[in-house]
Design goal:
The protein has helices at residues 60-74, 90-102, 116-124, 137-152, 163-180, 197-209, 225-228, 262-269, 281-295, 301-316, 349-356, and strands spanning 33-35, 45-50, 83-86, 106-111, 128-132, 155-156, 188-191, 214-220, 275-279, 322-327. It has 364 residues and is an alpha/beta fold. It starts with 32 loop residues before the first strand and ends in an 8-residue tail after the last helix.
């Protein structure tokens, strides 16, 4: 791995973008591709696409915006109508941002197993959060959201089924990747899946315009739904009729609900990925911490898990290979999760020793 410090002889300066934005929603997308300098094997070039540069700090801002605007265009969402959705958190945060900017009431249904930061951010943005029992898993919160929509005439966002999900990744995420690698190699693109919108949408473009790029998909090793080969049972309107039998609880929030989403089914049916590599929650947390400590890149457990797979692929890739890894969100919404369990709030002994090494004020 590269360990040479990055030095710059010039003073950094900025000049602005030469534009002003009419709304926070106009800042969604155009997230940066960043080189990994210290962790990447020396024989490859490894990059990450940092989706936490979106305004509500996750890749889900893209689909949240497109779900609402697609519904506005086709007339299925009316002015002042309440929006409701089941989510592990990031889509809910994105929807809360969009609904706040556009003036729609929002009710988010979440399993109680997801991080407290997610609940607070959604409520901070003015939305309501309904919690469902951990034992009911993702299907439980999904069914509750559908029940509320049916009973109250609310607009159900349907992130797991709607065409607006993969479409926005085809029209934005994929186009950004194409532009950022114009005239350059891109040998591997690595991602995980939650709804499946990212892989389905981006793969539409890569398969057509960059067919030599190998698409690597990942899922939790103890919730390997796709690897199991067991088909998802669905209702006539593509909703899951039950939990998938291969699912077990895992710590990679935002990844792999207890069913195979219909949006993801497009990637399965069209063979939109070349490799499917499982990863453990523990590996994901370890690599999230390494990205922070060695690269200054702050990402969540899903980002760490995707990066763990990217490192596996990078180690085995031929010299000169170029890899791009998706980082779905920021690590800051995992403060109450196991990702930060080893991070103390009080001074450790080394920190106390530093404090005591000079005569000035220090904590007792």
């Amino acid at each position: 791995m590269n360990q040479t410090p990055i030095h710059s002889s010039a003073i950094r300066s900025t000049r602005g973008q030469g534009k002003r934005y009419d709304s926070i929603l106009d800042t969604v997308g155009n997230t940066p591709v960043i080189r990994v300098n210290n962790l990447a094997p020396e024989h490859v070039s490894l990059y990450v696409k940092a989706e936490y540069f979106n305004p509500a700090a996750s890749i889900k801002d893209r689909l949240a915006l497109n779900i609402i605007e697609a519904a506005e265009r086709n007339g299925s969402l009316h002015p002042g109508q309440t929006v409701v959705e089941a989510t592990s958190g990031n889509t809910g945060i994105g929807l809360a941002m969009v609904c706040a900017a556009k003036g729609y009431p929002l009710v988010v249904v979440m399993s109680e197993s997801f991080s407290i930061e997610r609940r607070k951010l959604i409520r901070f943005l003015g939305a309501k959060v309904i919690l469902t029992p951990r034992s009911e898993k993702a299907v439980g919160m999904y069914n509750k959201a559908a029940e509320l929509a049916q009973a109250k005439g609310w607009f159900l966002a349907s992130q797991f089924e709607t065409n607006a999900n993969a479409d926005i990744h085809e029209n934005t995420t994929a186009q950004e990747i194409m532009a950022d690698f114009t005239g350059e190699r891109l040998d591997y693109w690595i991602t995980g899946y939650g709804t499946g919108g990212t892989v389905s949408g981006v793969a539409r473009v890569l398969r057509q315009k960059r067919p030599d790029t190998r698409i690597v998909l990942s899922e939790p090793d103890n919730a390997a739904l796709l690897s199991s080969g067991i088909a998802q049972q669905r209702t006539v309107d593509h909703k899951p009729s039950s939990s998938h039998p291969a699912w077990q609880p895992h710590l990679i929030q935002g990844w792999t609900p207890d069913f195979i989403p219909y949006v993801l089914q497009e990637a399965v049916d069209n063979q939109f990925y070349d490799e499917l590599i499982p990863v453990s929650s523990q590996e994901g947390m370890q690599w999230s911490q390494q990205l922070a400590r060695k690269e200054g890149i702050i990402t969540g457990i899903s980002g760490g898990s995707t990066f763990a797979v990217a490192m596996q692929v990078a180690e085995q890739a031929t010299p000169g290979s170029v890899l791009l890894c998706m980082l779905a969100d920021t690590g800051e919404r995992y403060l109450s999760s196991p990702l930060f369990a080893t991070i103390d709030t009080d001074m450790d002994q080394q920190e106390k020793d530093i404090s005591y090494s000079t005569p000035g004020y220090h904590m007792p």
